[in-house]
Design a protein that fits this description.
The chain is α+β, with helices and mostly antiparallel strands and 292 residues long. The protein has 5 helices and 15 strands. The N and C termini lie far apart (54 Å).
Length: 292
């Protein structure tokens, strides 16, 4: 069991990290998804309150830095602007809405569409006051059966094995039962609750399932063999235009150093349809475009 000496300090809007050049805030995106147009609003906010750029993280989230602060807090004006732009839907749970998902799920490849699962998982997390006690690094990972994110270090998750079922993950070492995907959000939240009960509270409490004795074996109801259908990996997502299963197109855009400035954002915004997807590879996908 890992020994911690302080509580998690992963930044959020209401709990920024104070760096030499100013405060850093992190904005959680469920599955990396945001509505088209919201990125343009965010670059406006970044230019007014931060250093004028938006950083993509390896967890498919967004980050602003170089923000003025007082007593370890950013200005209420910035908080209000981010809330109005839709980046702070649940202030109490902002640090724990860490849900990574296969970026093209439901659009290309994979064996299941996990977007409804991700939305329901977020709803359940935000409706449970106790889950706000999770560390800001506690991660839910949803792989749609293609193997693009399932290999990542995670705390709890699910890997789809067919269109309606997936196998639960408990830490990086343990597999749970195969369950109906519609039931997976409830099961994942229950496991997160059990983790908190076992981990306890205080500055020395573990942040991750793998930090528990036996890598969290006591969170597993009974041993389960890994389903053969979860032994999958996918090639890196190519940049450029990609044909979706529906006949529409997606465009995968490289973002140098994972940093967006106004020029890149305006290019993205001009081409986006309904949504923008931030990937765990610090790039951006524009889905549901007209096929050229």
């Amino acid at each position: 069991m890992t020994s911690r000496t302080h509580a998690d300090r992963c930044p959020g809007v209401l709990r920024p990290w104070i760096a030499d050049d100013g405060a850093i805030v992190r904005l959680r995106l469920i599955g990396g998804i945001m509505p088209a147009g919201s990125l343009r609003r965010l670059i406006d906010i970044a230019e007014e309150h931060a250093d004028g750029t938006v950083l993509l993280t390896k967890r498919a989230n967004l980050q602003l830095r170089g923000i003025s602060h007082e007593d370890g807090r950013v200005s209420p004006t910035l908080v209000d602007a981010l809330t109005a732009a839709g980046f702070l839907p649940s202030p109490r749970h902002e640090l724990v809405r860490n849900v990574m998902m296969s970026p093209l799920t439901g659009r290309l490849g994979g064996v299941a569409d996990l977007r409804p699962l991700a939305r329901e998982l977020d709803r359940l997390i935000c409706s449970d006051p106790g889950l706000a006690a999770l560390a800001g690094r506690f991660l839910f990972v949803l792989d749609d059966g293609r193997g693009d994110v399932g290999h990542r270090s995670l705390d709890v998750g699910v890997t789809a094995v067919d269109a309606g079922h997936g196998q639960l993950r408990i830490g990086s070492q343990h597999w749970g039962p195969v369950v109906a995907l519609e039931d997976a959000p409830r099961r994942l939240v229950e496991t997160a609750r059990r983790f908190l009960a076992v981990a306890g509270a205080g500055d020395g409490a573990p942040w991750h399932v793998d930090e528990l004795p036996g890598s969290g074996v006591e969170l597993v109801d009974k041993p389960h063999q890994r389903d053969d259908r979860t032994h999958v990996t996918s090639l890196p997502l190519p940049y450029g235009i990609i044909a979706q299963d529906s006949g529409a197109a997606a465009e995968h855009i490289a973002v140098p150093d994972g940093e967006l400035d106004r020029g890149i954002v305006e290019t993205i915004d001009a081409h986006a349809a309904r949504e923008i997807i931030v990937t765990p590879w610090r790039s951006v996908v524009l889905p549901d475009l007209e096929n050229p």
